[in-house]
Specification:
The protein is mainly alpha-helical. Among the domains are: 2-122; 132-207 and 393-498. The chain is built from 18 helices and no strands.
Length: 501
């Protein structure tokens, strides 16, 4: 009985997590779907035609499945569209989606203006999305604070190990030989702490979604650069002819170089992609607003796009708009132009907005009301995303503080204890104690570089929503930690100079 009860509880919790994920996925797409329904309705087309159109939109995969089911039940099973939507409202796990379907059914039955209802619903969904974005930022802030606490605990653990192991220094005599780091240090530095960082990275992955649809080539470069870095590390450690270089830069410097080899190629790849897509996210609302205003003065939809694309000040997005303008002038259809844009733009919001623009023009002739709705919603979406990035940007500074603090504090504590040991026991032999301290510091230094490098992926995912940005931050944080270690080593040299021989 107890086992059945426990199994039931675990299965129920697991099912709840799955349902919650499904609900969240459909709610993320819901504002864009409602905007498309609103634009279609404003163009004089029924909502059921909007469902049929939704079947071809792979940018909204969850609503694409919903549309397939709605159309199937209407055309295959012969149900009325309102009846089907009522059944879908009863069966969904999303309260927001259920309210939308129920409200639409009620509006149609009561004779209310459907376009007014859809506009009102879209506005309320935007406000709900804005509030949800604020709550998401607060959750991300809490996650960063928890990660900072974990790093502080790591620092305390490093210092505790240094203090405890330094007791061997005071027991050294002229007949004793110092022992190096034990297996527990290697386990803690190279296994336990990286696993904790990876857990936080996975949590950040679930909490922060990326607007970029694909970064496969960046990750592919990361695989090849990782293999190259492993080859460089093994070569410098095992080839006798290169031992002089290894001893000059040290194992810590060699590991830092290997991490840079891993991070630099995907970073450069991501930088090129992000430059275009972030510019598109920044200027797409202005582009849509220009189209809307040009349409109001009587220009055709295509001429409105050409007029809007000629405006300067779009940054890197101007190159994409130039291609759009030239293709329209050559008579290429808007759908074909959209397919070409998908090969160059990977920002999901930009692609959805451009797709809705194309559908608005082809279905309803690009009515001024529909274009005004599209431009207004696009501006509000940009405002939400801009506020999110601006709020999360200060947390990047914390990452550099973590790197410097861990590197400087751990190393300086170890050096100070060694100097105090020399002052307290001036008769003890210097070489065994010095060798032990140097070996411990080498292990800790490599662990610090590794920890800071992993922290870069956590910060990249939090700040920009993608692991591609993590390669940038990981490289910079690794260099920052290494520079801090060099600074602390100079401090050690000065401390040795004032300690007794």
């Amino acid at each position: 009985m107890s086992f059945s009860f426990l199994f039931g509880k675990v299965f129920g919790r697991f099912s709840g997590l799955i349902k919650g994920k499904d609900s969240s996925d459909i709610e993320n797409e819901l504002p864009f779907a409602v905007m498309l329904f609103t634009l279609i309705a404003a163009s004089g087309v029924t909502l059921y035609e909007g469902w049929k159109k939704m079947r071809s939109i792979n940018l909204l995969p969850n609503f694409q499945k919903e549309a397939e089911e709605v159309v199937r039940q209407v055309e295959v099973l012969g149900y009325d569209p309102l009846t089907v939507m009522y059944k879908r409202a009863e069966g969904t796990n999303s309260k927001i989606y259920r309210d939308f379907l129920a409200g639409y059914i009620s509006s149609v039955k009561s004779g209310v203006n459907v376009v007014s209802f859809l506009k009102s619903k879209m506005r309320s969904m935007f406000e709900a999305q804005s509030a949800a974005s604020t709550r998401a930022i607060e959750k991300l802030g809490t996650l960063i604070e928890a990660y900072a606490v974990m790093l502080i605990v790591t620092l305390c653990a490093y210092i505790l190990y240094v203090v405890v192991s330094s007791s061997n220094l005071f027991e050294l005599t002229s007949s004793q030989v110092a022992t190096g780091p034990n297996i527990h240090l290697y386990f803690f530095v190279f296994l336990a702490m990286p696993i904790l960082s990876i857990i936080f990275i996975l949590i950040a992955c679930a909490a922060r979604k990326s607007n970029l649809t694909s970064l496969k080539e960046c990750y592919r470069r990361a695989v090849f650069s990782s293999l190259a870095a492993v080859g460089v590390l093994v070569t410098f450690l095992l080839v006798p002819a290169l031992q002089t270089i290894t001893s000059t830069i040290g194992v810590t410097g060699l590991v830092t170089i290997c991490f840079l080899i891993i991070s630099m190629p995907p970073w450069l790849c991501y930088r090129k992609i992000a430059k275009i897509n972030f510019a598109a996210e920044e200027f797409m609302p202005s582009f849509l607003r220009d189209i809307s205003e040009a349409r109001k003065i009587g220009l055709s939809p295509e001429k409105s796009i050409i007029h809007a694309s000629k405006r300067s000040g779009y940054g890197s997005f101007s190159n994409i708009l130039g291609l759009v303008r030239s293709q329209i002038e050559w008579g290429v259809s808007l759908k074909k132009i959209f397919e070409n844009i998908k090969k160059k733009i990977r920002s999901w919001p930009v692609l959805v907005h451009f797709f809705i623009l194309v559908e608005t023009i082809e279905i309803g002739g690009g009515s001024t009301t529909a274009l005004e709705i599209l431009s207004e919603y696009s501006e509000k979406s940009k405002e939400i995303e801009s506020n999110k990035r601006a709020t999360l940007k200060p947390y990047i500074v914390l990452a550099f503080i973590w790197s410097v603090l861990i590197a400087l504090t751990t190393t300086i504590v170890a050096m100070t204890i060694y100097v105090l040991a020399n002052i307290s026991l001036p008769g003890m032999t210097e070489q065994p104690g010095l060798a032990m301290v140097e070996e411990q510091l080498a292990v800790l230094s490599v662990g610090i570089i590794l920890q800071c490098w992993l922290s870069g992926f956590f910060i990249g995912k939090i700040s920009e929503g993608t692991f591609g940005a993590g390669f940038k931050y990981s490289a910079v944080l690794a260099v920052t930690a290494y520079a801090s270690l060099l600074l602390s080593q100079n401090f050690w040299t000065s401390m040795q100079a004032i300690s007794p021989a």
